[in-house]
Amino acid sequence: MRKVIAILPLVFTSLLVYFLSKPMGSIPALGKLLDPVVGCWASAESVNKNYNNKLQLDGLKEGVIVSFDDRLVPHIKAGNDYDLYYTQGYLHAYFRLWQMDLQTRAAGGRVSEVLGDKALKFDRTQRRKGMVYGAEQSLKAMEADPRSKQMLDAYTAGINAYINTLSFKTYPLEYKLAGFEPEPWTNLKSALLLKYMADDLTGYTEDIALTVLRDMLSPEEFAALYPERLNGVNPVIPHDSIRQTASLSAPVVPADSIAWAHLTATDFEVEEEGKGSNNWVLGGSRTKSGKPILCNDPHLGLNLPSLWYEVQMTAPGINVYGVSLPGSPGVIIGINDNISWGFTNNYRDVKDFYAIRPVSATTYKFAGKEQPYINRIEKISIKGKPDYYDTVKYTVQGPVMYEEIFHGPGGLKKPIAVTWMAHRPSNEVLALYMLNRSGNYYEYVAAIHNFLCPAQNMIYADRHGDIALWGQGQFINKWRGQGRYVMNGADSATLWGQNIPVAENPHAHNPAQGYIASANQTVTDTTYPYWYNGYFYEFRAWRINDVLRNTRNATVEDMFALQNDVYSVLASNVLPVMLTHITPNEITDKERNYLNMLGSWDYRLMAESKAATVFQVWWTNFYAALWSKRFGKIPDQLKPSPERTMQLLKEESPYLGNIKDAAIASLRNSIDSLEKLKKSDRLEWYKAKNTSVKHLTKLAPFSYTDLKIGGWGNTVNAAKTDHGPSWRMVVQMGDAIEAYGVYPGGQSGNVGSKYYATFLDKWVKGEYYKLSFYTADAKPAATYTWSINPKNK
Amino acid sequence: MKQTFIVSVIIVVLGLIFSLFMSGMWIAVVLPLVIMVSMQIPGRRAFGAGFIGVAFLWLVLILIKDVPNHHILSSRMAGLLGLPNSAMFILVNVLLGGLIGGLSGWSGAVLNKAFRK
Predict the structure, then answer these.
(1) Chain B: residue nearest A21 by CA?
(2) According to DSSP H, which parts of A438-538 are helical?
């Protein structure tokens, strides 16, 4: 008996250690996590950390100097291209490894490997939409050009040089929390990351919903509520810049019975929208300095670690500064010695759907014949479970995304194949390589013509005074209407035809109006000779054009103000109409109190405005009430756009039903929500909308919420709940380039670093950093320096 | 009392050296056990010495990281574990170390006794 008791302490100790070193469910191995030497504490970085470093790295060709400025932005000076991208890879990994790893796993549908089977549906979606297939196609193109191949090879080698230095102790904290390990980087991962962006920006599936809506409504009704082109828009490309000749003639429109498929869906799944962006450029005629000013603020998911990483890259033939995407080599948006550029999403539709007519389990009908599917077996590894095998059938159109075994939006079981520009080979890496080195308009044009997907409105200004914008991407010469709805996959007439030569993409170069602005609105007016459709937004473009049209002697400060503008064009148009339908004696005192708040409101969604909250709540309910009869349970995102609704409202269109009833009922409905907000002291607009910048894991202690920022998706400062201006940049292209920027995050991805969210405060306040762009003439002293040398073999 | 103190100090000093190449968990498991096996200390006191020694060792190791970090990481980790502040997080963490060290020390004492027989 005593002997038994004697071994008890040993048993206790062993059991305790055993349980502490094993993850349980979603709880990580606590013993490892709380280990004071190798656990989370290893990520606690001294606030006075001296970042100076001397490194010897394998594979580097010559010595490299990295000078960090006081914001921890690295300025890389390398002797050749290889070393330049190698060092960028090393830096990305050093500061952002976990994020790059997770995002590329997400892109390629490999999240289940680390999070278990709760991510299986997500992974299958990624695989079935052909993300890996598309990345493989693009990688072939990227590796076929020696410049982009070297760029990727060097970048990958740099990342792996850093990964090879790691042990459990030095892993980013998130690996310890989630219990997985970094794996070697590959060029394919960089290609996947670019496809991730393509999917984020062109991956919408509204064709399917539109197909159902078309069949649900009468043709007149559908045309009125979902016009192919909205009237009264300010297109990206000014009318006089549009070249009205086309080298390709418009393809013949097939008969409706051949062209279209018909679907029924019982309900809809809606993807969260909110991606958008603004960019504009003023020519010297409109600025005080007489030099162009270029502005850009891409709106993307607001996350930590931030999507962006600031960097300057210098080597013979290149001196570029801007934001880069951890996971991809080069600078995406920025400036070099001569030019500046920025992107907004173009939103022309480059993803179309086909209803497939299966003949047997292995064949489908196409062009009158029975065709075999080409199967691609997707192996999905799942943490703690056996591998899952998903067979994706490829037709002439592309992968069958949805079918009986994997339902589409609204429970669609019909096999639907997708043709998507992101499946085609394209070399965006080369586009960035050339763009980063461009010295004038023509080099910029040559560079961006390699950028095929996701299509972007690429804005440009240079020190010679040129301004320009290209709606750049690879587009198809479509027959009128092609791809607007799900097409009949059995007929060859619905297949995509020829590529439109990229030189014929809509563009403006020094237009007479003296400025160019894009904010995801319609790209051109109808004089552009090629037919296209898209998913355009107009409110921000209306506002920006209204401001810029009257702008003379602009300064960078004026541009800061415009990027932070929160004027709601929607409110200024619809609120007066809504108010005319309210008769004072029909409402209660409580309702009157709220309405009184709107009386003196200036239509600005300011952070502290309570009137803004009243309007936003009322409008949301009003919009729902206007369409409730006609659309029933269909979610808001699929109803006629707010832009179109606003127009119909002003026309008092009969399609809206009884506007007065809707106004009163929706006001009544709003009082409950408003009272709730008031009681919890959340009536101020920023509290009501709660703009948050969350860690990618959504863990609250790593995230920031209730940020005191105004605006909404339809104002220029498009700070929504979890999407918003991910990088604000303003550049004046004088003899010396004056550049300003800020992003809602920090240079370090380490939650235990003081550089984790350093810039957030300024971003919230609408302030900017002056970017420290090193040139041959101006090279400020570095705060920290890395000197890197090749390892002696 | 004196013995407990001395053994604790030995654990802290050796532990700090070992922490240069060993994880805090291994130190907590192995060090008190080895010390108690090689010294003749009654079980209860062995537990106490292991507990105090490792708790103090972990506290030192943690403060070396936490103070220069201005509690950035510990505050976030506290939030993750639902604890009110970084001090509480450190306390929990240190107590965990102490528990392992105590059990390990006790085991050492028991083994010592077994060998002596």
Answers:
(1) B25
(2) 441-448
Answer whether B73 sits within 8 Å of A40, measured CB to CB.
yes
Residues B39/B105, Cβ–Cβ less than 8 Å: no
Q: What is the DSSP string of A354-385?
A: EE-EESSSSEEEETTEEEEPEEEEEEEEETTE
Collect all residues of chain B within an 8 Å Cβ-Cβ radius of residue A39: 23-24
Residues 10-39 of B with CB under 8 A from A: 19, 22-25, 27, 29, 33
**Closest alpha carbon to A714 in A299, A429, A430, A150:** A299
Encode pLDDT of A574-589 as tens digits. 999 999 999 888 889 9
Integer Cα distance of A37 and B62 in angstroms = 8
- Are A701 and B78 an interchain contact pair (Cβ–Cβ within 8 Å)? yes
Phi–psi pair at A12, nearest 5 degrees: -55, -50
Decide if A334 contacts A341 (C-beta within 8 A). yes
The pTM is what? 0.94
For residue range A515-558, list pLDDT tens digits in order: 999 999 999 999 999 999 998 999 999 999 999 999 999 999 99
What count of CB pairs under 8 Å joins A to B?
110
What confidence tens digit (pLDDT) does each residue in A304-339 have? 999 999 999 999 999 999 999 999 999 999 999 999
Q: Torsion-angle region of residue A729: left (phi > 0), alpha (psi -120 to 50) or beta?
A: beta
Nearest-CB residue to B103 (from A13, A21, A754): A13
Nearest-CA distance from A30 to chain B in Å? 10
Look up residue A387 and give its two tokens.
Answer: 């591998």
Instruction: Look up residue A742 and give its amino acid.
Output: V
Given the DSSP bridges, would you call strands A318-324 and A416-420 parallel, antiparallel or unpaired?
unpaired
